[in-house]
Specification:
CATH architecture of the largest domain: 3-Layer(aba) Sandwich
CATH topology of the largest domain: NADH Oxidase
Low-confidence stretches: 90-104
CATH superfamily of the largest domain: NADH Oxidase
Number of domains: 2
Number of strands: 16
Mean pLDDT: 90
Structural class: alpha+beta
Shape: elongated
CATH class of the largest domain: Alpha Beta
Order of helices and strands: EEEEHHHEHEHEHEEEEEEHEHHEE
Helix content: 25-40%
Oligomer: single chain
Length: 366
């Protein structure tokens, strides 16, 4: 086949960033390779928004005098993986997807996801742990009343195997307020600080759910619509003192926040009596793990969510996790902290409509 008949397109997994010297750098997020790039090369890749031959590209790009020169450049870029090369189909065109000489495509990953995954696999950057670590306790100086929560010691627990077998996601709740002692026991068993890991200056804490490096970046906010013994509103949970700090009363803004982050996404007919809004104080994790912090925060969130789901089942609460994340964060009670916190997930809490009922589950096989 005449080499000029091959079709070329830019590798969709290549991103453009700026190097330390200010020049453009191409990043192959799948193979995690970086290439310095001259502006003319960036211009060429800009033209490769669809599969085309060297002759077609020569007509669009003014960086070379002859089509032969363009062909040689494209072959070098294909060998480096910066562009993909494919044979034309029956019409002389290619669909730009599927198998190419450079490997398979269309596996569902975005280049941004690939970049985060690849960077996380390389570990933290060499200059991590600079300066003083952020404190493990998040303060809300604007908070109002502090409500001491009861411990969970007085609430009986069941065997773990039974809790695991009974865990369900529940989207309908009894029309009754959630008792505050159950909220206290729930937070005590899922998020309360049990102690510090040495050295204390590193701000590493021990809590029920694991966290990378003991950093525990996640902050727990309670959206209390109907909690017996608690005024409706938004509260911050202080895991050191096992208290709730009131941030604001219940408003239409809180109702809208609960509607778009939980009720609508979980396909609920009505809002839950209570819910959790989970936010990460990212600096705690990035101080130690800069370069892979986001991946650790996501894993920490999964660990905490699983712990919360099991604890809710153990306490006889109905719960449903919601993984949707707000970007940017819109919680009205966190407006002063939008440059320090990111939303990582939510959870609905309430009493089950029938404690003895369980959703039907089809057996395996058959």
């Amino acid at each position: 086949m005449d080499g000029h008949q091959y079709l070329y397109r830019r590798n969709p997994d290549v991103l453009l960033e700026w190097g330390e010297g200010g020049g453009p750098v191409l990043v192959d997020c799948r193979r995690w390779r970086k290439f310095s790039a001259k502006p003319a090369l960036v211009g060429l890749l800009h033209q490769l928004d669809r599969p085309q031959t060297a002759d077609e590209l020569h007509g669009r790009w003014g960086g070379a005098d002859h089509a032969d020169e363009v062909h040689k450049i494209l072959e070098r870029l294909a060998a480096a993986g910066i562009v993909h090369r494919s044979a034309p189909d029956g019409d002389g065109r290619a669909d730009g997807g599927g198998e190419t000489e450079n490997g398979p495509g269309g596996d569902g990953w975005t280049p941004y996801e690939l970049a985060v995954h690849a960077q996380a696999g390389r570990g933290p950057v060499p200059h991590a742990r600079r300066g003083t670590p952020p404190p493990a306790r998040f303060h809300h100086p604007e908070a109002g009343d502090a409500i001491a929560l009861p411990d969970g010691d007085d609430v009986p627990s069941r065997p773990l195997a039974r809790v695991l077998a009974e865990r369900r996601s529940v989207r309908a709740f009894a029309p009754a307020p959630v008792p505050l002692p159950l909220i206290g026991a729930f937070l005590d068993r899922t998020a309360r600080v049990r102690g510090h890991f040495p050295p204390r200056a590193y701000e590493q804490t021990q809590r029920p759910a694991p966290s990378g490096g003991g950093r525990h970046s996640l902050e727990v906010y309670l959206l209390a619509r109907e909690v017996a013994g608690l005024a409706p509103g938004a509260y911050h949970y202080d895991p050191f003192q096992h208290t709730l700090h009131r941030l604001c009363p219940w408003t239409d803004g809180l109702a809208a926040l609960q509607q778009r982050t939980v009720t609508d996404l979980a396909l609920m007919d009505s809002p839950p009596p209570a819910g959790l809004y989970l936010a990460s104080c990212t600096g705690r994790t990035s101080w130690k793990y800069e370069g892979m912090a986001l991946s650790l925060i996501y894993r920490d969130t999964g660990c905490l969510m699983q712990t919360m789901s099991l604890a809710a089942t153990d306490l006889g609460l109905a719960s449903c996790l919601v993984g949707m994340m707000e970007t940017p964060l819109t919680a009205p009670f966190l407006a002063p902290y939008r440059d320090r916190l990111i939303h990582v997930g939510s959870m609905a809490l309430g009493l089950p409509t029938d404690p003895l009922a369980a959703p039907a589950v089809e057996p395996l096989g058959g």
